[in-house]
TrEMBL record:
Domain DUF1232 intervals: 39-75
Cellular component, GO, one term: endomembrane system
Main subcellular location: membrane
TM spans (from-to): 37-58, 108-127
Name of a matching Pfam family: DUF1232
Species annotation: Clostridium carboxidivorans P7
Keywords: Membrane, Transmembrane, Transmembrane helix
Protein name per Swiss-Prot or TrEMBL: DUF1232 domain-containing protein
Lineage: Bacteria, Bacillati, Bacillota, Clostridia, Eubacteriales
Record localization: Endomembrane system
Keyword match Lipoprotein: no
Length: 136
């Protein structure tokens, strides 16, 4: 059992490193002039969401809180990678080894979008609650 748990932990660790490298490569691809606009847009949204301390589904919500980290980010990466030409993505992967050595780049725009989504959801819930309470 201990050996199986160790193997599982190593697999998760390798996948996390691969995701980190892909995020770095997408960040570098976003900065290039030879990447199409739509690919840049998707790339920066994925990178911004992956690096943002604010999640669409907060981590403190049981089970669902980690769904975005485990499903949404890898799906976003796959989608963005498909939009970028293969030779460009390969170059960016080679360069991405040290892209986050100095820390994560800040993307306040994506963080602001996520905050706006949460404000809208909370306002909608509060308005529904107030209307139900008034009608009772």
């Amino acid at each position: 059992m201990n050996n199986g748990l160790k193997t599982c932990f190593l697999n998760v660790k390798q996948k996390a490193k691969k995701i980190k490298k892909e995020i770095g490569a997408l960040y570098l691809a976003y900065k290039r002039d030879d990447v199409p606009f739509y690919a840049k847009l998707v790339s920066i949204l994925v990178v911004g969401y992956a690096l943002s301390p604010i999640d669409l589904i907060p981590d403190f919500i049981p089970i669902l809180g980690y769904v975005d980290d485990l499903i949404l980010i890898p799906l976003g990466i796959m989608f963005a990678v498909k939009l970028i030409p293969t030779h460009i993505m390969n170059e960016c992967r080679q360069q991405s080894e040290n892209v986050f050595k100095k820390g994560k780049p800040k993307n306040w725009i994506v963080g602001g979008i996520i905050i706006c989504i949460w404000v809208i959801i909370i306002a909608y819930i509060l308005l529904k609650f107030i209307r139900v309470k008034i009608n009772v």
